[in-house]
Design brief:
The protein is of the alpha/beta class. It contains ten helices and 13 strands. The strands form two sheets. Strands 12-11-7-10-9-8-13 form a seven-stranded mixed β-sheet. A six-stranded parallel β-sheet has the order 3-2-1-4-5-6, with helices on both faces.
């Protein structure tokens, strides 16, 4: 199987390494807007990977590909997806499909008209804990669901130059939580109320963005949802999903590496050793190994979604995350942004096309 990779940055490099481990992939073609970066990535891959660096992204479409991974800059996603489906090449595209609603809608329309599979990279759907939560809810174990909570806490903000084109906290970060809530519950969100704050670097405010935000969601069966995100959680990366039902409650993403400390009742909180950084020590002073970022926290999920894409290309399974799902998540992020700007409850039908 010949797979192309558009984008040799951080996530592209991770995908390249994972693709080299898949036995079905016997040739990998890497291209980037910066040809030198593509060459550097290929040079870091094992010699057995059979990877080739191309001089231009356009060369991918004349390489006889069986599938294409799009991990380029966000503003290139839609164009690459549309070009691939027009050529009959199945695509895996990192979220988002496009940087705005119009571009997302156009990409979805193009994919639907072509009939070519486009799998969108919402990796949290492939996390074992989140999949188990979905099954537990569907089985009736929780009874009826009354509350769902999801969080995305980054240990440090992204570079200042990333923020102006990120789309904002809700479209860039919280969209993962919004997609996950739809995926796990099987319900649609009908209303949102969002708010945000800036307590950190000025560049968020200067770009009209926020560094911390939350949204209250009302699902179509009356279930309440709460999503929270921040760019400043120095204790470590934290992504959890909590489901509270009439019979039982469960949580995913909470383990020994979750960057939270339970304080014993009636005792003083533990003190870190002099000079220790946040997250370096556990409650008893032992070394604490927390998640450093989303790629570490969801390493297995990233591998699983690429295996799923290879199965889609081979015709062994249905598309697990088609572009219509990405559009629905984008609608919700758009509703949150509108609520944030106007300070009111927003019905999701207000942003739908």
């Amino acid at each position: 199987m010949k797979i192309g990779l558009a984008g040799a940055g951080r996530i592209g490099a991770r995908h390249a390494a994972a693709l080299c481990e898949l036995p079905e992939v016997n040739a990998l073609y890497v291209a980037d807007a910066d040809p030198g970066r593509a060459r550097d990535l290929v040079a870091r891959l094992p010699e057995s990977s059979r990877a080739t660096a191309l001089d231009a992204v356009g060369e991918l479409f004349s390489s006889g590909l069986d599938g294409l991974i799009v991990a380029a800059a966000t503003d290139a996603h839609a164009g690459l997806v549309e070009r691939a489906v027009a050529a009959g090449i199945p695509v895996f595209c990192e979220k988002p499909l496009a940087s705005d609603l119009d571009g997302t809608f156009q990409a979805v329309t193009a994919a639907a008209a072509s009939g070519v599979p486009v799998q969108v990279g919402f990796q949290r759907r492939f996390d074992a804990g989140n999949a188990a939560a979905r099954e537990a809810l569907a089985s009736g174990r929780l009874g009826w669901l009354h509350t769902v909570r999801s969080c995305s806490f980054d240990p440090a903000p992204p570079p200042a130059e990333y923020v102006p084109t990120s789309g904002g906290l809700f479209r860039d970060c919280v969209i993962h939580d919004l997609d996950l809530i739809r995926f796990v519950t099987g319900r649609e969100v009908v209303r949102v109320m969002a708010s945000g704050a800036n307590r950190g670097d000025d560049f968020f405010r200067e770009c009209g963005d926020i560094d911390t935000g939350s949204a209250l969601l009302v699902l179509d069966d009356g279930t309440l949802g709460l999503v929270s995100a921040t760019r400043y959680n120095a204790a470590g990366y934290d992504s959890r999903l909590e489901l509270f039902g009439s019979k039982d409650s469960i949580v995913t993403g909470q383990d020994a590496r979750t960057p939270v400390t339970a304080l014993p009742e009636h005792e003083e909180p533990p003190k870190a050793a002099p000079g220790a950084e946040p997250g370096e020590e556990g409650p008893g002073g032992e070394p604490r190994h927390v998640y450093g970022g989303f790629m570490e926290r969801f390493a297995d999920a990233y591998d699983a979604e690429l295996r799923a894409f290879v199965d889609v290309v081979a015709g062994r399974r249905a598309n697990p995350c088609p572009p219509e799902e990405a559009l629905e998540a984008f609608y919700l992020a758009e509703a949150c942004e509108l609520s944030l700007r106007e300070g009111r409850i927003v019905g999701t039908e207000e942003v739908r096309r």
